[in-house]
Design goal:
3 helices; mainly alpha
Length: 91
């Protein structure tokens, strides 16, 4: 899958790691975060969903802050040192 980043594709390993499974969500559980951390995750999620179509954005603007922390899971795939061939500089 081409993500539009030179030198980076999504592998089958990436897909398995990032797959959403409702019965066994990956990432950190909101209940394990401090109030400050939970607030930062919610702010980040709301910033991200602002890029979605308005009907989804409106739904998440309400549900993200209202969701009980234990029902909130957050996972992120970040660039790591083994991605040394990844060029993120602008051209």
């Amino acid at each position: 899958m081409d993500l539009g980043i030179v030198g980076r594709t999504t592998t089958d390993v990436d897909r398995r790691r990032l797959r959403f499974v409702r019965s066994a969500p990956s990432g950190i559980n909101g209940a394990d975060l401090t109030g400050t951390q939970l607030g930062a995750v919610r702010e980040l999620l709301l910033h991200y969903v602002e890029t979605c179509p308005e009907e989804l954005t409106a739904q998440y603007r309400h549900s993200v802050p209202a969701e009980h922390p234990s029902a909130l899971h957050f996972a992120w795939r970040a660039v790591s040192t083994h991605d040394s061939n990844l060029n993120l500089s602008s051209t």
